[in-house]
Amino acid sequence: MGLDIRVFKNLKVVENPQLDEYGDVENWETEWRPGGSMEWSEEHFPGRGEGLEPQNVYTWEESFRFRAGSYTGYGWWRRKLEEFKGGTAFQELINFADNEGAIGPVVSKKLATDFKENAEEAREFAKTLGDAGEVWLELYDEWKAAFEMASENGAVEFC
Description:
Blueprint: E1 2-9, E2 12-13, H1 35-44, E3 58-59, E4 62-70, H2 71-85, H3 91-94, E5 101-103, H4 105-117, H5 119-127, H6 133-150, E6 155-158
Helix pairs in contact: 4-6, 5-6
């Protein structure tokens, strides 16, 4: 088990989505509903989903997925991110769930800026991590791309 990430760009509300008897999206390959996962994350991390509505069903222009790691691996990566710039950047990601939820376009834009502005320094920091530095930097670049895409009226879903 681990943390998988889905990223969306240019979300648009689907006016009459097809839902199954449980209220889940039937056309899951082309439609997405933040739903209960986002409701939970908004309860525990208010404001992270700004720009999204959990009950809406969305379609998107572009999307991609990546594996953020096992839960232990992602925890390590996030602790190193906090060690790198904790307190001055990335707080909306560092202080967020590691298993579910959604970050909307407003917070994604802020995080995209954090990742972009600190990219060169992150490369230097990765060198201090020995053999693990390459893995840490690869994930840094994945998250950077995710928040850049999601900052364009999109979202980052933790699943």
